[in-house]
Amino acid sequence: MPSSSAPQPDAESGDQPGNADQAQLERLGYRQELRRGFGTFSSFALSFSVISILTGAVQLYGWGLKHGGPAGVLGGWLLVSVLTVPMALSLGQLASAYPTAGALYHWSTILGGPKWGFVTAWLNTLGQVAITAAIDYGLAEFLCGLLHLEPSRSTVLLTYALLLSSHAVLNHVGVKAVDLLSTLSAWYHLAAVALVVAAVAWWAPLQPMAFAFSTVTSESSYAMGFMLGLLQAQWTFTGYDASAHVTEETVDPSRAAPKAIVSAVVVSAIAGFALLVAVTLSITDLPALLALPDAQVFPQAVAQALGPQLGTAVVVVCAGAMWFCGLGSLTSNSRMLYAFARDGGLPAARQLARVSPRRQSPHLAVWACAGCALLLALWADAYAAITALSTIALYASYALPVALGMASRRRGSWSRFGPFDLKQWSLPVNAIAVGWTLVVMVLFVLPPNQLAGYAFVGTLVWLAGYWLLYQRTRFRPPIRSL
User: Fold this and answer.
1) How many CB atoms lie under 10 A from the CB of residue 166?
2) How many CB atoms lie within 10 A of CB 418?
3) Measuring CA to CA, which of 169, 295, 336, 359 is 20 to 30 A from 422?
């Protein structure tokens, strides 16, 4: 199983990073431009915050409940949690070997060539823009309900634009602010989950355990409803590649990044299941919840359990966690865009690759990501379709470097690994990760999420033309020895 040596000095401890990380980056073909201020816990905190069980599990709680009932919500979470761990281990192995901000697309380039790197980069870019849009748009809908605002399209979009702007401003300020807020976010999420579970366990009358196995579906068959309901859990378990994207800002990234990726998934799986069990068993009127719009199901379920005043307080705490999640998502998104622009894979690449001399942050990439997220929400009014698009695009970008690494390892052409290495377990773990991704990509383009499928296919067609007509001879990121 994964091997790792003794922990290295952490940025939180006050130790200054030495030259080893910079030298490692230079061997991979890049020079140090971003400030190294993330330690192991900060890296974990970023991925944990982007996963944000108080975002995905809450915003899509109504979706999961209507498609699978209590059994679908709880059973689906367990199934997705187990099948996400192999992908986290696989990405951790790659991050340990090649710690760069380009991460996924850089791995694909090294293991399969520039063409595969280019496709991976654009899929990851699409997925990250979509997930940023989904997080903040879902939060905007959540806040409109919480503040009793008119839930019109214009009101939600204005709230959404303000949320995006707050995240862009903080990411523009630089890595110090984001580092501090990421650490705060991790503790906030853990404390908030503990608060919700404790409040429900103490105040609410709970259903018998048999209620956890009850089924409901809005589809023609329960099997199809259960599978579609997996979007709640699968969308939650996205964004944990954030730790890989900040490796150029992390001390000892070959060890810190894989630890952060895997631990973020495992901790989220355990804490999220505890949260869902508590809330689901506290439901007193399931038919009333199923009649509500999806965005109102979780707040009303908590109100049923705790009463309107305490229920509102809990919902406010969840909204705070969603805000932290959006911040971390934009951080990861901007680092990916910066790295891609640095290698010339984007229009206006020279501008997007600029780093603020004062802040040492990719400020133009930050605002470009926020702008693209705003445009995506203007284009697609279907929240579930945005979440489905972000899920399939991100998992496709995860699976490509993993599949290329698996093939390279079998051929024996990849033989230089990082300190976190799956050794003899690598091939079976990688195969499970890639296989589950294929299932996810088919599942979440089925109706009612066909809009996500159209957008995904359209992106692939556009990428093929853009590569053949323009980027085939221009996109040349550094490629170092395997």
Assistant:
1) 16
2) 22
3) 336
Rounded to whole angstroms, the Cα distance separating 240 from 88 reads 8
Residue 388's domain is classified under what CATH number?
1.20.1740.10
Which residue matches tokens 């290495």?
421
**CA angle, corner 64, sides to 201 and 203, nearest 5?**
15
User: Is residue 278 included in any domain, yes or no?
Assistant: yes
> 53-82: per-residue pLDDT in tens?
999 899 899 999 999 999 999 999 999 999
- What whole-number distance in Å separates Cα of residue 89 and Cα of residue 92? 5
Interhelix angle for 308-342 vs 40-51, to 10°?
120
13 in a domain, yes or no?
no
Looking at residue 13, its amino acid is S
Domain of residue 121, residue span: 37-471
Length of the chain: 482
Beta carbons of 249 and 43 less than 8 angstroms apart: no
Alpha carbon 240 to its chain centroid, in Å, reads 5
The DSSP code for 419 is S
Q: How far apart are the first and last CA of the chain?
A: 21
Cα distances (angstroms) measured from residue 139 to each of 60, 136, 161: 11, 5, 11
| Cβ atoms 266, 86 nearer than 8 A | no
CA-CA distances (angstroms) from residue 366 to 48, 132, 161, 423?
A: 20, 12, 14, 37
Q: Does a structural domain hold residue 20?
A: no
pTM above 0.90, yes or no: no
- Residue 216 near residue 74 (C-beta atoms within 8 A): no
pLDDT in tens, 409-463: 988 888 779 999 999 999 999 999 999 999 999 999 888 888 888 888 988 898 8
**Is 12 domain-assigned?**
no
293 touches 60 (CB < 8 A): no
